[in-house]
């Protein structure tokens, strides 16, 4: 019986052992699955939090960027309005200056006719003419020169008038008017030494600056700069047909041809990969961070505003408005320096032209002919005193009483009429 019981209990214990192991394995599997589910839920929650934070940060950045772009747009609109107002004022001034120039041209034509008449009268005069008449002619010519300097700043016409006065004095050959001739010569030397403003050259440089403002690349790529860059690339890169013909070489054959083709393909692929890698990164230093936030439309308006400033500077040059000239060119220099890509040759040339024009004066202080006018007044007084002495000399030599000569009301007018 004992043997039988032992033999019957042995299989029972052996069958219980796999069942408990199976239950333990299933419980471990369930715990593992539960832990995996919990870990997955935790990861999903963390991922949702990270995505929510990223979306919030991106939304905030988008709002800031939109506010900044709106502010730049308002500033650009205000700048365009101010530029239009300045252009309207400049056009009004141009019209006023044109009217004044027309009046000056008519006055100049009348003056030229008077100068011709005076020249003819001068040729008819002889050395025995009156000094007062000669001084009146000289005074008229010097006054014309003074008017040309004060009204229109025309140095050339003033020099012509003074040269006419100088030639008239030289033909008259009056030793008593040597001081007057020296004064006129000194005024002529000062006028000839004046540096004139080359308006056509300055205007051409402004036109060149305006062209560069339209084609020079900005810090942010835009349509105008890319089109200009493509045109320049097409113009600078020679076509294979234009390359000089090289002596014909025998084409490789067999495995050499295959190796040469493989080597050429490898070089082309490496070149393309290097170009793509270089275009991925662009490191530069920018003082104005807003320059990198402009859209293509804003870049186009920005170029138009700068061109309008160049036109305003050209109008200021024609009207000799120094303050407007320097202000516009200073704004252009600052805008080019901050918003254009200085690695491009066109940008550097535009900045150089703007700075050189800013340092170029458009109004030059002109000398006057006050010395000649003062010398004419002194010579006229001396000539008048001389003629009075010549008129009084016959009365003193006649031996008559002084009283009738003084009381005679006819003597002085008769002498004056003779003059």
Automatic annotation (TrEMBL):
Entry keywords, A to Z: Membrane, Transmembrane, Transmembrane helix
Keyword match Transmembrane helix: yes
Compositional bias segments (type: Low complexity): 7-24, 400-419
Keyword Transmembrane found: yes
Region (Disordered): 1-24, 230-253, 380-419
Any single Pfam family the record assigns to this protein: HemX
Segments traversing the membrane: 37-57
InterPro entries with a match to the protein in the record: HemX (IPR007470)
Biased composition (Acidic residues): 384-399
Database matches in PANTHER family: PROTEIN HEMX
Protein known as: Uroporphyrinogen-III C-methyltransferase
Organism: Castellaniella daejeonensis
């Amino acid at each position: 019986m004992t043997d039988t019981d032992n033999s019957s209990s042995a299989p029972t214990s052996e069958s219980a052992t796999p069942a408990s192991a199976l239950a333990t394995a299933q419980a471990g599997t369930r715990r593992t699955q539960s832990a995996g589910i919990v870990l997955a839920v935790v990861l999903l929650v963390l991922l949702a939090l990270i995505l929510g934070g990223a979306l919030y940060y991106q939304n905030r950045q988008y709002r800031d960027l939109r506010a900044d772009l709106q502010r730049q747009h308002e500033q650009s609109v205000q700048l365009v309005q101010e530029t239009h107002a300045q252009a309207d004022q400049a056009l009004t001034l141009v019209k006023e200056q044109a009217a004044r120039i027309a009046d000056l041209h008519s006055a100049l034509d009348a003056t030229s006719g008077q100068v011709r008449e005076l020249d003819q009268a001068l040729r008819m005069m002889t050395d025995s003419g009156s000094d007062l008449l000669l001084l009146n002619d000289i005074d008229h010519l010097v006054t014309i020169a003074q008017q040309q300097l004060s009204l229109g700043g025309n140095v050339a016409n003033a020099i012509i008038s003074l040269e006419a006065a100088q030639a008239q004095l030289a033909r008259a050959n009056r030793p008593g008017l040597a001081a007057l001739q020296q004064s006129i010569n000194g005024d002529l030397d000062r006028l000839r030494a004046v540096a004139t403003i080359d308006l056509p050259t300055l205007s051409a440089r402004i036109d060149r600056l305006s062209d560069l403002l339209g084609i020079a690349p900005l810090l942010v790529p835009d349509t105008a700069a890319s089109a200009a860059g493509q045109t320049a690339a097409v113009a600078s890169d020679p076509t294979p047909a234009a390359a000089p013909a090289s002596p014909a070489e025998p084409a490789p054959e067999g495995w050499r041809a295959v190796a040469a083709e493989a080597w050429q393909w490898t070089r082309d692929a490496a070149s393309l990969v290097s170009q793509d890698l270089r275009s991925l990164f662009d490191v530069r230093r920018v003082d104005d961070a807003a320059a990198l936030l402009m859209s293509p439309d804003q870049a186009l308006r920005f170029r138009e505003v700068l061109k309008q400033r160049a036109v305003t500077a050209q109008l200021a040059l024609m009207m000799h408005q120094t303050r407007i000239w320097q202000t516009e060119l200073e704004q252009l220099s600052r805008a080019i320096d901050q918003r254009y890509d200085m690695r491009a040759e066109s940008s550097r040339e535009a900045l150089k032209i703007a700075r050189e024009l800013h340092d170029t004066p458009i109004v030059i202080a002109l000398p006057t002919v006050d010395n000649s006018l003062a010398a004419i007044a002194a010579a006229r007084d001396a000539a008048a005193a001389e003629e009075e002495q010549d008129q009084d000399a016959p009365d003193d030599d006649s031996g008559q009483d002084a009283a009738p000569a003084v009381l005679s009301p006819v003597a002085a007018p008769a002498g004056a009429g003779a003059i």
